[in-house]
Amino acid sequence: MSDIKFLTEKIKLFNKERDWDQFHNPKDLAIALNIETSELLDLFLWKRNEDVNVEKVKEEMADIFMYAFNIADKFGLDVNEIVENKLKINAEKYPVDKAKGNSKKYNNL
């Protein structure tokens, strides 16, 4: 069992024990994910990197991952597979010889 699958199962058990699955439809999970990413952004607002509270960053990132894993689980998606597939797509869109050291979007390389 992959680490991601193992974590997903732990998250599902945590939610089941609290009877939260009734609230975890994909739409609301996506909204919650967006809220958590905003909370992560707020930690960086008007701060230099060295002034960011890394412990708070870890907490917000954990929330983000948990909501993302919940969404993937709701649709029966294999997180490893979808990330690998996206990396392949991005490798084609951003070939090293054109994209290395360049922040332009793929259609402007």
Structure description:
By secondary structure, this protein is mostly helical. It folds into two domains: 1-76, Orthogonal Bundle (Helix Hairpins); 78-109, no CATH class. It contains five helices and no strands. The radius of gyration is 17 Å and the shape is globular. The relative contact order is 0.11. The model has no long low-confidence stretch (mean pLDDT 96).
Quickly list its features:
0% strand; 109 residues; globular; Helix Hairpins; single chain; mainly alpha; 2 domains
> In angstroms, what is the radius of gyration?
17 Å
Distance between the terminal alpha carbons, to the nearest Å? Answer: 39 Å
The general outline is globular
> What's the name of the CATH homologous superfamily of the largest domain?
MazG-like
Q: Could you spell the SSE succession in H and E letters?
A: HHHHH
Average pLDDT, all residues = 96
Strand content: under 5%
Number of β-strand runs: 0
Q: Domain count, please report it.
A: 2
| SS field, number of helical segments | 5
CATH topology of the largest domain: Helix Hairpins
CATH secondary-structure class of the largest domain: Mainly Alpha
CATH architecture of the largest domain: Orthogonal Bundle
Largest sheet geometry: none
Helix content: 55-70%
Specify the structural class: mainly alpha
